[in-house]
TrEMBL record:
CDD domains named in the record: HMA
Listed Gene3D superfamilies: 3.30.70.100
Protein's name in the database: Copper chaperone CopZ
UniProt-listed Pfam families: HMA
Domain of life: Bacteria
UniProtKB keywords: Chaperone, Copper, Cytoplasm, Metal-binding
Entry's localization field: Cytoplasm
Cellular compartments per GO CC: cytoplasm
PANTHER family reported in the protein's UniProt record: P-TYPE CATION-TRANSPORTING ATPASE (PTHR46594:SF4)
UniProt-listed GO biological process terms: copper ion transport
Keyword hit for Metal-binding: yes
HMA domain location: 3-69
Predominant location: cytoplasm
Native source species: Planococcus maritimus
């Protein structure tokens, strides 16, 4: 089932950060769309919850060196 999650992410400061997050999250199976807002420190992800879960998405962001501070569905 398709869902959307809004994650608050700290530590992103440039377009390289945006690309790193988009590429790492976008590579996950089941992720359909990734929107990164550098100004808001936010990542919105549309995904299929039968293929990937929020913990995996958060982990992909954290693996790039950023902190997932909060999330809301």
């Amino acid at each position: 089932m398709k869902e959307q999650i809004h994650l608050q992410v700290s530590g992103m400061s440039c377009q390289h950060c945006v690309k790193a997050v988009e590429d790492s999250v976008g590579a996950l199976s089941g992720v359909e769309k990734v929107d990164v807002s550098l100004e808001q420190g936010a990542v919105d992800v549309t995904y299929d919850n039968s293929s990937v879960d929020v913990a995996e998405i958060a982990s992909a962001i954290e693996d790039q060196g950023y902190d997932v501070a909060a999330l809301s569905e």
